[in-house]
Automatic annotation (TrEMBL):
GO terms for cellular component: ribosome. This is Ribosomal protein S18 acetylase RimI-like enzyme. It comes from the Bacteria. Coiled coil: none annotated. Residues 121-257 form the N-acetyltransferase domain. Transmembrane segments: none annotated. The keyword Oxidoreductase does not apply. It comes from Allorhizobium borbori. Keywords: Acyltransferase, Ribonucleoprotein, Ribosomal protein, Transferase. GO terms for molecular function: acyltransferase activity, transferring groups other than amino-acyl groups. Pfam families: Rv0428c_C. Gene3D superfamilies: 3.40.630.30.
Length: 257
């Protein structure tokens, strides 16, 4: 399966890619032509450790540039990963296909119209600004490696647009759900939505998502966007309930994956 996009959707792809970079900033973001090379030594996230080609016409010296990128990734202890969006040149995709690379994950980028979304008028959960508290809760909810604590705090601290950190806790120090909402002018990014395993299918995800979207709309955001792995059926069902629809997809490539 290939990622295809009409010319008319490319401006939307460019805009959502740009706000995505700002909403989840890598520690290092360098350019090789139009390829953005994103690397973060403290966190293994693919979003923070990948090469993102951003111009369909930038097709020169592919082998040389891939080797340059591989060396940068090797210096960070990361496997070279390419993120394919509709902006990636067809020639590069064909080069990867014939050079032993393969896709190992597909992600949907989805949007919804906040102006038409039916949300409660009350704010059951107000956003916090205590990054340390949020990170501790998020690690507990997701059962993530505590060694990622400092890196996650640094990433959140580096976000330049307005950030809302939402937690659902019925009992102190017993978080059930968490989400980050990043408002960038009229766009609101939903990041890192997570629900504790023991609390799933109880409405916690919908509750915390509604709070984040309501907050963003009050702050004049008109469109919400998010990224979700294509195989995550429960998350897709939740987002469908809120009116999110697919804008485009991206895929991650690795050699020998």
């Amino acid at each position: 399966m290939h990622i295809e996009s009409s010319t008319g959707t490319l401006p939307l792809v460019r805009r959502l890619e740009a706000v995505g970079f700002r909403a989840w900033p890598a520690a290092s973001a360098q350019y090789d032509g139009s390829w953005q090379i994103r690397l973060t030594g403290g966190h293994p996230s693919k979003r923070l450790n990948s090469v993102v080609p951003l111009d369909p016409s930038d097709t020169g010296n592919l082998d040389i540039r891939l080797e340059r990128a591989r060396r940068k990734f090797e210096a960070y202890g990361r496997p070279l990963t390419i993120r394919e969006t509709p902006l990636m040149p067809l020639e590069l995709r064909e080069h990867l296909e014939t050079s032993g690379w393969s896709v190992f994950e597909e992600v949907l980028v989805m949007t919804c119209n906040l102006e038409k979304l039916d949300l409660p008028d009350t704010m059951d959960h107000l956003p916090g600004h205590d990054i340390g508290r949020f990170v501790e809760a998020y690690i507990k909810i997701t059962e993530a490696d505590p060694a990622l604590r400092a890196a996650l705090a640094e990433i959140i601290s580096s976000i330049k647009p307005t950030v809302g950190l939402f937690l659902k806790e019925e009992v102190e120090n017993d978080p059930q759900a968490a989400v980050i909402c990043v408002q960038d002018n009229d766009l609101a990014g939903i990041m890192s939505l997570a629900v504790a395993a023991a609390g799933r299918r109880q409405g916690h995800g919908a509750e915390i998502l509604a709070a984040a979207l309501r907050w963003a709309r009050v702050r004049s955001a008109r469109t919400a966007w998010l990224q979700v792995v294509a195989t995550n059926a429960p998350a897709l069902a939740l987002y469908d309930r809120f009116g999110f629809t697919e804008a485009y997809r991206h895929r991650y490539w690795r050699k020998g994956a």
